[in-house]
């Protein structure tokens, strides 16, 4: 049997010979720098046409290193199996492409080491900007980006070294707590403190929600103790376990609950379901997160929807304006109104300069 030889790949020198020009001129056209080299549009079109006809493909990594901009924008996210982060990813992709950018996204599972590995890999691909969404250590990622000369922006959780766009967690939690307390008084005819469950007390968002939770109790003259605050983590099984441990200590959980995410809500609903049909139980729940399926859980639930479109709009405004100062912009969440409908507050962006340059 005779083996046919593999066709030789077209090189940049082949294209230069076919176009009747230099290899450097061909390189400038293929890398998008031909205008700076004052190459005519006719020659640029000829080289582009020949490259297509000859099936010429540039090496992505090599060409990126020669460009001033890659037009690639990266994002790391902690979870995919959550409607909030899923909606961030989907809308981010659409908004990036609409601006002529190519989005690269990866999930880091709230693992600090994975976050660093992901950031390092994206920097090797010459991203123009890296968005750290819900990162456990956003400042470390910003330091890596700064060392590489790449911009970074924090989304969802703030940092101290780069611009950040987050939800207004304090005001959102204060209003949600107020609504749960009023619903308990209206539906259950009692005015007792609520139970806060879910999240990590060490992260900014949970700390601000707890602060808003306390403030709402104070405004309505309801005393609240440390035993009513359980920042047990986000996983469903952690919320379920925290409630079991509460009962094991002889404490009856409050009939009104502030649940810190839909992930934690899953564990709360499992725990409640063990006692029978949820609709038959005297419990009022508020969740600082949103999922349309929650409407199937009954009428004793309020949900706050984080305003993802407004957050991403503000983020891209920062990118396009060249914002580098470590400001924190807080976007009000979408709150349920008195009839349980969602009312939009997208236009009400409140910027806070709580995080400034060190010193």
Automatic annotation (TrEMBL):
<dbReference type="InterPro" id="IPR028082">
    <property type="entry name" value="Peripla_BP_I"/>
</dbReference>
<keyword id="KW-0238">DNA-binding</keyword>
<protein>
    <submittedName>
        <fullName>Transcriptional regulator LacI family protein</fullName>
    </submittedName>
</protein>
<dbReference type="InterPro" id="IPR025997">
    <property type="entry name" value="SBP_2_dom"/>
</dbReference>
<dbReference type="InterPro" id="IPR010982">
    <property type="entry name" value="Lambda_DNA-bd_dom_sf"/>
</dbReference>
<dbReference type="Pfam" id="PF00356">
    <property type="entry name" value="LacI"/>
</dbReference>
<dbReference type="Pfam" id="PF13407">
    <property type="entry name" value="Peripla_BP_4"/>
</dbReference>
<keyword id="KW-0678">Repressor</keyword>
<keyword id="KW-0804">Transcription</keyword>
<dbReference type="GO" id="GO:0000976">
    <property type="term" value="F:transcription cis-regulatory region binding"/>
</dbReference>
<dbReference type="GO" id="GO:0003700">
    <property type="term" value="F:DNA-binding transcription factor activity"/>
</dbReference>
<keyword id="KW-0805">Transcription regulation</keyword>
<dbReference type="InterPro" id="IPR000843">
    <property type="entry name" value="HTH_LacI"/>
</dbReference>
<feature type="domain" description="HTH lacI-type">
    <location>
        <begin position="10"/>
        <end position="67"/>
    </location>
</feature>
């Amino acid at each position: 049997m005779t083996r046919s030889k593999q066709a030789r790949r077209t090189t940049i020198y082949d294209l230069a010979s076919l176009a009747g020009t230099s290899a450097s001129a061909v390189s400038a056209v293929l890398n998008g720098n031909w205008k700076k080299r004052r190459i005519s549009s006719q020659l640029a079109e000829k080289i582009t046409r020949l490259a297509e006809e000859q099936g010429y493909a540039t090496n992505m990594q090599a060409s990126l290193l020669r460009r001033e901009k890659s037009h690639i924008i990266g994002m790391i996210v902690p979870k995919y199996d959550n409607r909030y982060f899923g909606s961030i990813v989907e809308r981010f992709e659409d908004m990036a492409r609409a601006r002529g950018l190519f989005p690269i996204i990866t999930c880091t599972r709230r693992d600090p080491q994975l976050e660093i590995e992901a950031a390092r890999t994206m920097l090797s691909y010459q991203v123009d900007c890296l968005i750290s969404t819900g990162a456990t250590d956003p400042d470390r990622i910003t330091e890596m980006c700064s060392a590489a000369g790449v911009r970074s922006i924090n989304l969802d959780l703030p940092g101290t070294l780069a611009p950040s766009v987050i939800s207004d967690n304090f005001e959102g939690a204060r209003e949600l707590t107020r609504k749960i307390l009023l619903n308990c008084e209206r539906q259950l005819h009692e005015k007792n403190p609520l139970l806060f469950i879910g999240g990590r007390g060490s992260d900014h968002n949970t700390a601000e929600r707890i602060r808003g939770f306390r403030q709402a109790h104070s405004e309505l003259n309801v005393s609240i103790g440390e035993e009513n605050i359980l920042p047990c983590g986000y996983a469903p099984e952690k919320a379920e376990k925290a409630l079991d441990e509460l009962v094991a200590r002889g404490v009856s959980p409050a009939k009104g609950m502030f649940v810190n995410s839909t992930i934690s809500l899953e564990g709360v609903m499992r725990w409640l379901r063990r006692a029978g049909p949820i609709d038959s139980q005297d419990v009022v729940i508020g969740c600082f997160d949103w999922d349309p399926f929650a409407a199937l859980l009954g009428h004793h639930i309020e949900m706050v929807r984080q305003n993802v479109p407004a957050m991403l709009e503000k983020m891209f405004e920062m990118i396009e304006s060249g914002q580098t100062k470590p400001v924190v912009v807080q976007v009000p969440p979408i709150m349920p109104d008195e009839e349980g409908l969602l009312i939009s507050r997208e236009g009400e962006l409140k910027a806070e300069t709580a995080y400034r340059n060190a010193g």
